[in-house]
Design a protein that fits this description.
With 154 residues, this protein is α+β, with helices and mostly antiparallel strands. It has a single domain, classed as SecB-like (Bacterial Protein-export protein SecB). It contains three helices and four strands. It has a four-stranded antiparallel beta sheet with strand order 1-4-3-2. Helix 2 crosses helix 3.
Length: 154
């Protein structure tokens, strides 16, 4: 039997996915439901990604979604989700960052989106269907911001 090499392995393996943390609250219930009649809340969505090396080419990637719906500066609901996955990356190290910050969150996102939709529906609201996120653009924007910060401190 021949020894397997990284060329024989898939470039990215999803070893597992899980809810790391989930919180949903409606601070103004039940009054907020009456106040929302014929009004739509403002629903900003904050996205963050954390990457932690576990060993060798094994990484934990956590997609953080925070939704703070408000109506005239009054909170309607707050949903926070940390959805994680453990990934094996069989690529040269120079490709790890892009794969971990773009491809891994892209694979986690549909599951996180469903969890948020279910939580908002179960909380008494229409399901919040978060629009797809362009993780490649998010990665580029953050890389540019880091370069500008580095240039500003030099």
């Amino acid at each position: 039997m021949t020894e397997s090499t990284t060329a024989d392995l898939p470039p990215l393996i999803v070893n597992g996915q899980y809810i790391k943390d989930l919180s949903f609250e409606v601070p103004g219930a039940p009054a907020i439901f009456g106040e929302m009649q014929n009004q739509s809340p403002d629903i900003p969505i904050h996205v963050d990604i954390d990457v932690s090396p576990l060993r060798d080419n094994l990484f934990e990637v956590v997609l953080h979604l925070k939704v703070e719906a408000s109506l005239a500066d009054k909170p309607v609901f707050i949903a926070e989700l940390a959805y994680g996955g453990v990934f094996t990356v069989n690529l040269p190290p120079e490709h790890h960052q892009a794969v971990l910050l773009v491809e891994c969150p892209r694979l986690l996102f549909p599951f996180a989106r469903t969890i948020i939709a279910d939580a908002t529906r179960d909380g008494g609201f229409p399901p919040l269907m978060i629009q797809p996120i362009d993780f490649a653009q998010l990665y580029r924007s953050r890389a540019e911001a880091m370069q500008q910060d580095a240039a500003g401190t030099a």
